[in-house]
Fold this protein.
Amino acid sequence: MTTDNLNNALSFKHLFSNECLSRGESPIKTTMKYFLDPEFHFLGAGMPPLELFAFQNFSFKSLDLKNYSFNEIQDIIINKNDKFEEHVNGNIVEDELDSDILIERALQYGNSRGHPSLLNFLKIHINNTFKPIYKDWDILINNGSTYGLESLLRIFCNPNDTILLEDLCYSSTIEAISAQKINTVPIKMDSNGIIIEDLEYKLKNWETCYGDLKKPKIMYLIPNGHNPKGVTLCDNRKLKIYQILKQYDIILIEDDPYYWLQMPQYKKPSFKDDQFIDENKPETDINTNQDFLNKLSNSFLSIDTDGRVIRLESFSKYFGPGTRLGYVIGSKQILDNIWNYHEVSLQASSGISQLMVNGLLNRWGQLGYLNWFKRLRVVYTQKRNFCLNSLYKHIHQFDINEYVQVEEAPKAGMFFMIYLNISKHPEYNQKLVELGKDKIVEYFENLFFEKFIQSKLLLAKGSWFTVSDPCHNVVNINRCMLRGTYAAVTPEKMNNGLKIFANIVKQEFN
Ligand SMILES: Cc1ncc(COP(=O)(O)O)c(C=O)c1O
């Protein structure tokens, strides 16, 4: 389908916050087009002069991914006096859309939506991957997903508004929401993401469940490699979820920083005469791009006809969190309002960071970018398999199966979750009498956390990620949760850490 046949997004102005509605456009922003016109006598904005920019050149090295070879390094050099014609391997490039970002642009005010060539690259990337199905979708560069969420809260929420979250959620999201005095309502999850029946039930019976609590405007989901649970929302739930959100006029924020860290299914090891047998084939590089793309899950963007899905993308997990670069995909109308907020807060994302990421991506091209993701898949699969194999090995060796349950193996991302069956702990009944149901999980969570810390092992507490229900909190008092990660841990530390874990569990439960 060409874009000519597509409709524009719906207007969601009726859902905007008071703050958003009262914020106008920055008047100076509208003048930037004149600044870029060399014929213009531009005396209108306070821009520092180019000759006083001290940086003369940006020179850095990156992997050369054009041909999926990971041992080739390329030099990227961007000089102060470069002009578009001189860029990109000596080829004449007339169009700013397909070139390096000039230093004079990168270091100057302006381009607060993002630099055109980076935006262009990302637009093609998103179109190739998700093929949004309304006409006026757009992209806005920001400082990563944490900032992306914060700005969306400001665009849509007044204090006392309500957001739907998965019942476990990335802790910074919970903090950001509660700092703005916004209510949260958790939707139950299983190993395949949120449970549709719970979502449907709560929305249908809102007054019965939540009384006067405002009806939700937003739902926030982490669809792939959920943080902290590690699970992935399965594709066959997505359309139904979208239809429900449409029925109740709810905006969906799809925070998906682990999308390109998707992995093949993990198979648990078996043990024969106490011999460990790894059931996973070594993950090898995938041959064709189509093969690779076919294995990936869908984005809500691909089913969104209304423009009610706002997708947060981040380079943090692909190029490093220090890039502080990400982007939002959504309808132009919503993005314009985020842009207005950027103008008075962020202004623009770092031009230097954009220059570097853009310099790399333009040399790699779309296929090179895909090659990078293919590589991430291989490496993350190795890390995950090593971690879970070690975990199961130690659980078996320390004979602690009945005290430990491992969440379904992650199909994406960097997190795994372990549940401890605290009700089997020898002190459980006594502590339940002493502390009551409200405090029992907290007690054991702290006990294990402290024991692990004393042995120099850190696993994150499940309570840091728990979204409590404002009206009827139902807590499973028989278990406590621990989140682990295999991303930046050496095999040796991983193995030792999990051995410490198993040893402490064994000591405590016996
Ligand atoms: C779900 C989720 N969103 C956002 C972030 C942070 O992303 P960024 O570095 O782009 O702000 C994280 C990082 O852990 C995350 O797990």
